[in-house]
Every structure is written in C-alpha cells, then in structure tokens.
Amino acid sequence: MPPKCKFQEGEKVLCFHGPLIYEAKCLKSSITKEKQIKYFIHYAGWNKNWDEWVPESRVLKYNEANVQRQREVQRAHSTQQSAQKNKKGNTTTKAQGRRSEGGREKDTDSRASTPVSTADKSISRFNKSTNSTVTASSSHESTSEPTRKKRSRLEPSSETEEYLTKVEVKIKLPEELKFVLIDESEVILKHHKLPALPVQNTVDKILDDYVEMKSSGKTNDIRESTLEITKGIREYFNITLGLQLLYKWERPQFIQITNDNPDTLPSQLYGAFHLLRLFVRLGGMLSYTPLDERSIQLLLSHFHDFLQYLQKNNAELFNLQQDYTDPPPDYHRKYG
C-alpha cells in the first residue's frame, strides 16, 4: 500500500531550505520507487527557478505553532551568525598565517595519501555543511526581507536532488549510552522533571574538555582537527536543539529561557543528555550533506571517538539528579 501524502497540491506550507524555514506552496507530489514521498515546492515571493523537489521531512503544516518555530529558527540562526562574526577576526588571522606558507601548504594538500590533510578537508566540509543541512530532517520558516536577501548564500548546489536521495548515515551509540537516554526519557515523561538550566557540565564545557584531552601532548594538527570537529558539533547542536531535540514537555521552558536570554546559546545552557540526543539525529542530517563516502567515514570515526569519551566519563557527565529538577508549580498548570 503506497504511503499517504500529508500535504495536498496547492496547499500553503512551510518548508526548510538551508537552516531556515520559508513560506511556500506545494505544487505537486510524487512517490519514489523506494516509496518515499517528495513534494515539488514553490517558495512564496521567489522566481519559479527556485522551485524544487524536497522530501516530506522538510515540509511543515502552516499553523501558528510552526510559524513560532520558524521565528525560533531565525533567532537561533541569527545568534549563531553573530557568534561566528565575533570569531572571524581570529580565524582570518590564522588563515593569513597559513597562506603565508604558500607553496608548502599546496604541497601538503596535493598529497592525497596524507591522512591529516584528507581528514582536515573532510572536517572542513562537515562544518561548512552545517547551515545547508540542519534542515532536511526537521521543519520551520522565515519570511523577512533581510533573510531573503541572504538566501542565495544558503542555496544548495545543483546537486540538490542527488544529496536528497542519499542513504541515511548510521551513527552507532554505545549500548550503555542508549540506556542513559531511556532513563532520561522516564524522568521527563513519567516524573515530569525539567533540565536544571544552566546545567553544571554544559555542552560548551564538554566539547572544550574533549579538545583539551585530545590535544594533550599531541601535535598542533591534532588540536586543530579536533577543534574543527567540535565546532561542527556545537553548531549543529545550537541550531537543532529547539527544532528536533526537545520533548514537548521541555519546549515551554526552552522558549521562556531563550526569550529571557536572547544572546545565550543552547550549548551554554544544556548538557550531556541533550548532546547525546543530537547523535541520534545527526546521521539523518549528514545524509543531506554533499560529502563523499570517504569523508563520511572519517567523520564517523571522529564521532565514534567522541561517543567513547562520553561513555568513559558517563558517571560524571550523565547525572539525572544533578541535571534535572522539579518544575515551578505553575508550569504544571500551564503546560501539563
């Protein structure tokens, strides 16, 4: 029996494109040989040259809740962009330093058999793909004019159709960490606890500690590659937390704390439990990146190493009594 389409032809919808959500219209639908539903989308106010086929996971119902999500995505993206701009000066200085080495760097890049140079290129592409792929496994939007002007920079390449049909990348969680997520879900869904924000070991602290651990006594190349990997993980986390990583019970708390602290990133508030949830979703996100198989395998090896680090420090990082607390009395009344 063929799958049933959630959206009708001519229906007004919201659609992910890059890291943002846009108002759109569903022009037609199609079911692939693999019985996957796709929709041919027209973005409101845009030339038909932007029309494209997208998987159902990128399309959202046009309703008040999803419009609110669209605003949250825009806010998270703007905050992330501001943070990146603040670091731009340091990054530019480093890049100029590398360019000053001229021929020597070109020499290194030309040796494809050099593991470090190959890994660095893959990691760099992973980071660059963050903005164009945190999307396909979610749904939200933005209709402001300033955002639209930037859209050409977020537009995927002509390989869109190719990467939309890639097989999902599987990130295998250690068995011990799977039980961590099961225990956490019971605390939230059965006992109605909330994260004690900010937690003691935030995502930022965990990633920084991991970099220090990996860099201790190692070469600068190792430190740089680890920094790049953790930078990508941090960016994916900050953009996806409010979209895909929260239980319904947690969402009002997230909305309130981000409204009260608009300049504070999720990675400065949440900790290991929510970071682990990211790795459940991350494989699906990577399926929409234009990375080749070799690059994916290199990234998976880095993720596996990081997950082993989380498992090794399980007792310290995953503390339900420390990281979860009872909500305020009126929280139950409003959102229970």
Automatic annotation (TrEMBL):
A Gene Ontology term for the protein's cellular component: NuA4 histone acetyltransferase complex
Entry keyword set: Acetylation, Chromatin regulator, DNA damage, DNA recombination, DNA repair, Nucleus, Transcription, Transcription regulation
Bias kind Basic and acidic residues: ranges: 98-110
Matches recorded under InterPro entries: Chromo-like_dom_sf, Chromo/chromo_shadow_dom, MRG, MRG_C_sf, MRG_dom, MSL3_chromo-like
UniProt record, GO biological process: chromatin organization; DNA recombination; DNA repair; regulation of DNA-templated transcription
Domain Chromo: 6-75
Record-given protein name: Mortality factor 4-like protein 1
Record localization: Nucleus
Domain of life: Eukaryota
Comp. bias (Polar residues): 76-95, 111-141
Pfam families linked: MRG, MSL3_chromo-like
Region called Disordered, residue ranges: 70-161
UniProt feature coiled coil, ranges: none
